[in-house]
Each structure stands twice: as C-alpha cells, then as structure tokens.
Design brief:
single chain, about 190 residues, Rossmann fold, 9 strands
C-alpha cells in the first residue's frame, strides 16, 4: 500500500469517526461491563474457568472484564474472523487456536458483538468438541434483528443495539476505531465496500 493510499484510508476513518452517532457513551459502556462482571461472577466463580478471548474484537472487553472477575481463572485467546478488514462478513477464517486445555472445564467466551451468530456458533462448537464441560458466552453488544442463526444466543450481554454498523470498545471499521471509548454507529450510506 502506498503512503497516499494509507493517508486516504486514515482520512476516511477520521471523517467517519467525527460523523458517527454515539449510541452508548463511555459511562454506559463502563456500567454495562460492571454489570456483566457481576453476572459472570455469579455464574462462574469457583469453577476454574478458562476466559477465552475471541480476537481481535474481544480484546478490549476481555481486558476490562478480567480485572473485575475476582476469582481464579486462566486467560487464553483464539483468533477466528469473518471480516478480515472488511465491512461484510465472509467464511470464518481460523488464524490461531487456544493453547490452554479446554477439556473438563468451563470456558468463558468473550467477544465484541453478537450479530448473526456465525462466529459464536463455530467457536462454541469447537470448545465443545475439545471437551469443555460448559461453554458460557459474553458479548458487549447484541444487535437486534431477525437474521440470527436459530438457537444462537449469548449468556451475558452488555448492551443491545439497533441493526446498524457500529464501532468502538473492540468493534472495528476496516480494522480501525476499536479504541473509540463508546459504541458509535455509522450511517449505511457512508460505508465504503
């Protein structure tokens, strides 16, 4: 990629960040994460769970939640993605598998968003195939729409949002804006392919 192309990309990112609509500000996200930690603690404290971050989207939430879960647990990650820097999902691409043992223990899956449920379904099935005693899932954001795979749901949800393209707190736009301090929506007309 040329320097000019990179500059054009970051200009687009900056423009989208400025024009985006804030759905949930930092305070609302902080409150949601604290509530999630309380729920997860009630479900998993004392069970020796493995917190499994689904990269890259689950990184921010995993880090924030881990410090609020005051009980013994281990942390690992896997990298499975459908977006690969694009705004539309495709076939799931497994980049990295967990290193820790899943067999015989509960697994806490952490991801940024539950949209249609393809990633969550595939990752949960992988954990079950590895012998996890229980698969418990937590997502920061759940989109409300009718395209969800039948039977797929998250056990713990921080925030519910309308069916819009969003970024922030782990959610990205073409690999950028995961670091935005709230949940922001981009108008569909502004999305570039």
């Amino acid at each position: 990629m040329t320097l000019e192309a990179l500059s054009a990309d970051t200009e687009e990112i900056t423009r989208l960040r400025r024009s985006a609509h804030c759905l949930h500000d930092k305070a609302a996200v902080d409150a949601a994460i604290e509530s999630m930690a309380t729920q997860i603690s009630g479900e998993l404290a004392g069970t020796d769970p493995l917190l499994l971050c689904i990269m890259n989207g689950g990184l921010v939430l995993s880090g924030r939640l881990a410090t609020l879960l005051d009980f013994p647990l281990q942390i690992d990650y896997l990298h499975a993605t459908r977006y690969r820097g694009e705004v539309r999902g495709a076939e799931l691409n497994w980049i990295s598998y967990p290193r820790e043992r899943l067999a015989g223990r509960p697994v806490l899956l952490i991801d940024d968003i539950l949209d249609e449920g393809n990633t969550l379904k595939a990752v949960a099935e992988y954990c079950e195939a590895q012998g996890a005693s229980r698969v418990y899932s937590a997502v920061l954001v759940e989109k409300i729409h009718g395209r969800r795979i039948d039977g797929i749901k998250a056990d713990c949800v921080g925030l519910k949002i309308e069916d819009r393209f969003v970024f922030g707190c782990g959610l990205d736009y073409k690999g950028y804006l995961r670091n935005a301090p709230g949940i922001f929506a981009i108008d569909e007309a502004e999305l570039s392919p």
